[in-house]
Amino acid sequence: MTEFAPDAGFRKNRKLKAALLRHKALSKDGLSERLFGLLFSGLVYPQIWADPDLDMQAMELQPHHRIVTIGSGGCNMLAYLSKSPASIDVVDLNPHHIALNRLKLAAFRNLPGHADLVRFLAQPNEATNSSAFDQFLAANLDETTRSYWNGRKFGRRRITVFDRNIYKTGLLGRFIGAAHLLARLHGIDLTEITRTRSVREQRQFFDEKIAPLFEKPIVRWITSRKSSLFGLGIPPQQYDELASLAADQSIAPVLRHRLEKLACHFPMRDNYFAWQAFARRYAPEGEGPLPTYLKREHYEAIRDNVDRVGVHHASFTELLSREPAASRDRYVLLDAQDWMTDQQLNDLWTEITRTARSGARVIFRTAAEKSIIEGRLSPALRDQWTYLEDRSRELTSLDRSAIYGGFHIYEKTA
Asked: What pTM was estimated for this model as a whole?
């Protein structure tokens, strides 16, 4: 098992540093990369911001499939377990995400029942959650993960964040909180959209309350800076991709369009991403959905399958380089390729292609609409994969998380 320091910073995490840094330290781009790296070295995603239901439709999971996925907040790999795949390897360069993934797996394995699981992982202001950790989870964690959650931050044990609201923490949680504060300064309470009763009312709220915010000078000034999107986990490279979509190179119209999809394209009762964005929590019972992995109908299958997961503090390429040829069926890259150089992309796809069985699928997301690998992979690699373009376009329109421009599926043909 790879060990990591409970307070590992960006300088100590060589793997993360190598993945993020391209430019000289004192250059404008280099400074931007290092600022993002420092922010990204802590917990970023308490909830993964990618729709696992979309992933499962794209992957068409079968019981014999062996999956490799980036971990992030862990919601995706747990959802995949509802389909009982043969195995899942989870990789992540962020040690905080590793600790969160391992904790969520332990919660399924060791908490007494479904209600206890939902209380621990989904309900805010439950003061007994840290006690549940002490009673049921701590002794069943590896020493490194146990030390992480027992470690102190600002004078309190890290695990006590579950007594409050973990979804208000991490880089993403703080970014959403800052957006709420900015809206309140302009007289808008974003939580009011959760009280709408139809998509029509959601549209009215967006048009009347949210859309005008993007014309405010302070909002346009903030969104004109690359660092404004670091809180979404979007690095400088992705900012450039998004800015290229707008005629005036401003990110504000792109953000407005993505937020419009989140607010207006799906009923609030069906979209837990919208609840997290606008209410900073999941919906109360009966008012909206829980994430797939927390739904009662999937509880037993996920609990029974948690031992099929391995969690690795490693890069995707690094893990695959240790695996035998023709040994994996499904690969979930999230948006990681948006950060990569051409060399890194080709190194990654070399290992994917080597380890992929015939019919294997790779799925990923991109900040912009177009697939990131076209024109960048060597022909020898690219020619072994078929782009399922129509299916990719169809599923992009169904993505409830709404933050990405494109969702892409590739299938191995040889």
From this structure: 0.89
